[in-house]
Design a protein that fits this description.
Elements lengths: L1 H29 L1 E9 L2 E2 L4 E4 L5 E3 L5 E6 L4 E5 L6 E4 L9 E2 L5 H12 L22 E5 L10 H6 L6 E4 L2 E4 L9 E2 L1 E4 L2 E3 L10 E7 L16 E6 L7 H9 L12 E2 L8 H10 L2 H13 L5 H14 L3 H14 L4 H14 L2 H14 L4 H13 L3 H12 L10 H15 L1 H4 L19 E7 L5 E7 L5 E6 L5 H10 L3 E6 L7 E9 L6 E9 L7 E9 L5 E7 L4 E3 L4
Length: 575
């Protein structure tokens, strides 16, 4: 009996040992060495503490700012140094190099930056009859003068419900915002009335309203905190005229940007090729077929990097007008880098720019297999299916992610997904086989047919950049995507797995809008590839879609990407 017990105990311990050993080996297999340098204003920073979060494992940078540490995908590395802001970064499946730039703790400067960069703006415009116009700006702000509200309603809430504001629903004296994506969910607005905040609005007669602003993109207006997650309705009443004039002006200034564009963006046409030696070799061959074979051989023998080959492939298209040759090079790259999701995404971007949508589907399917937990994998594949008119597959991709019960309602990506799902819902409902209960934000397809829509995607989540939108009055709105300034945003993107953003201009107005980009790097030597997709007449029979792919190294120059007006929507590039 005793021997039997000891034997069973021995077998149990042996099994436990084997399981533990296999688990340890699995973890050891996932471990990789992360190397990099830490700098401040491009100078090496010694003595920076790099720690593995929730662990005692760590290291420090040497005199040259260099460090090395072992970590695995899913780990979080923190970078800290006295006097500098602590930065945290998630390790991903492709992470091998992380070059970090630290930022000094300067609360006063940070406060000024937040005030300047994150404040909304809206300037009243008038139509040809001199009547004030209900408009949206690039940050989804709706404006209407009190005198233009329907006077047939007593309560301003009922009057606003009658306005038909996209993404706003009214029921029983309550206004709700549907900006947060959910199958069956909406959030109540926060009310800012003459500078005072209310969760539910007090009774205000329509005749007492001077003007109303409905702000629905609170990620860009952080002053209201989490209470404003569903949107904010700002009402100035006629009583506000009796307030102290200075206080009234302060309230009004909250919604205007004092940042003006100073014409400092350069044309992308001035950007020089990075691999001029290789391009000279390709050009010297004097024959496009020889050039394609030369590049394929160089790729197969690993004589050129992915990024060199991509630039040479683009050169084939421009210099030789050889799109089939570029496609052949992309196919060779797909085989060579079939295990790298970031590089595969880049190849798919170029296929989409060329209009080779079926080829893009095949590549995005490979990315999905490599990254099945990434939200971007679902978005990319769904949109690729939509481009090839596989509407059922597109809808199923979105629903298969949402049905997992993951809450993305408070993330900016929810707006992009909702836009794409609305397009399918209103235009391809039968072809997509839509039976699931879905509540669109827009009341009808007409709500977004006049929009100008810009979708920006980038192949690596570590990209740091800034987008600048300049309205006809030369006022500038900035979207900053940097670890130093939006650490929480970058972390949430990496955790959920998405790297895209949607911007909508609902009314171009008179004059010209400009869209500029400044790129700051991606914490590794390789470039970042951006895909810019511009939509106009969205949802109309004459809907137009234009795709531009551009690569950036650590240039820190501001490039002009787009020039937008009612007469012309065009990319400001040489391609």
């Amino acid at each position: 009996m005793c021997l039997s017990f000891l034997k069973q105990k021995y077998i149990f311990l042996l099994v436990l040992f084997n399981v533990t050993t296999l688990f340890a080996q699995h973890n050891q297999k996932d471990l990789r060495e992360i190397t990099g340098t830490v700098t401040y204003q491009e100078m090496p920073l010694a003595g920076v503490n790099i720690m593995l979060k929730n662990s005692i494992k760590g290291t420090k940078t040497n005199a040259q700012g260099f460090y090395r540490i072992e970590a695995k995908p899913g780990d979080v590395l923190t970078y800290s140094h006295l006097g500098y802001k602590t930065l945290s970064l998630l390790v991903e499946d492709v992470t091998n190099v992380l070059n970090i730039e630290m930022v000094l703790i300067t609360e006063e400067l940070e406060e000024v930056t937040v005030k300047a960069e994150k404040e909304d703006y809206l300037k009243e415009r008038k139509d040809s009859y001199g009547k004030s116009k209900k408009i949206y700006d690039a940050i989804s702000t709706y404006y209407v003068k009190g005198e233009d509200l329907s006077q047939s309603f007593d309560n301003v809430v009922d009057a606003l419900a009658n306005e038909g504001i996209p993404g706003v629903s009214g029921n029983g004296g309550i206004l709700k915002s549907n900006r947060n994506l959910s199958i069956n969910n909406s959030k109540s607005f926060l009310w800012d009335i003459d500078g005072m905040l209310f969760n539910t609005p007090p009774y205000i007669h329509v005749s007492m309203v001077k003007d109303v602003r409905v702000i629905k993109s609170l990620s860009d207006i952080s002053r209201y905190g989490s209470e404003g997650a569903g949107g904010v309705i700002v009402i100035r009443t006629n009583n506000a005229a009796n307030m102290d004039e200075v206080k009234t002006e302060e309230i009004a200034k909250k919604y205007y940007s004092n940042v003006f564009y100073n014409n400092n963006a350069v044309s992308y046409k001035t950007k020089q090729p990075y691999y001029q030696v290789l391009l000279s070799q390709v050009k010297a061959l004097g024959d496009k077929q020889k050039a394609v074979l030369f590049l394929q051989e160089q790729i197969d023998n690993k004589q050129v990097s992915f990024h060199q080959a991509i630039e040479a492939a683009v050169f084939l298209k421009i210099h030789y007008q050889d799109i089939p040759g570029m496609v052949a090079v992309l196919q060779t790259l797909t085989k060579q880098y079939q295990d790298n999701p970031e590089l595969l995404k880049t190849i798919a971007y170029y296929y989409q720019e060329l209009g080779k949508n079926q080829e893009a589907v095949l590549v995005f399917e490979k990315v999905f297999k490599l990254r099945p937990a990434y939200l971007q994998s679902y978005i990319d594949l769904a949109n690729a299916y939509k481009d090839t008119r596989q509407y059922k597959k597109a809808w199923r991709m979105y629903m298969s992610y949402l049905n997992q019960g993951k809450d993305i309602s408070n993330l900016e990506i929810s707006k992009l997904i909702n836009s794409e799902m609305e397009w399918l819902y209103y235009l391809q409902k039968a072809n997509a086989g839509i039976k699931t209960k879905f509540i669109p934000q827009s009341n009808s397809i007409k709500d977004f047919q006049n929009d100008v829509r810009l979708v920006i995607e980038w192949n690596t989540s570590d990209a740091d950049f800034e987008m600048e939108f300049v309205n006809p009055e030369n006022r500038a709105y900035h979207f900053k995507h940097t670890l130093q300034e939006n650490q929480d945003v970058v972390m949430s993107e990496k955790q959920v797995g998405f790297s895209s953003r949607e911007f909508i201009i609902d009314d171009l107005g008179e004059g010209q809008w400009l869209v500029n980009i400044t790129y700051f790097g991606n914490k590794k030597p390789e470039p970042t590839y951006f895909k810019f997709t511009l939509y106009s007449n969205w949802g109309k029979p004459n809907e137009k879609k234009e795709v531009l792919v551009q690569n950036f190294y650590k240039e820190r120059s501001k490039f002009q990407l787009l020039q937008l007006s009612k007469k012309s929507l065009k990319f400001a590039t040489s391609q």
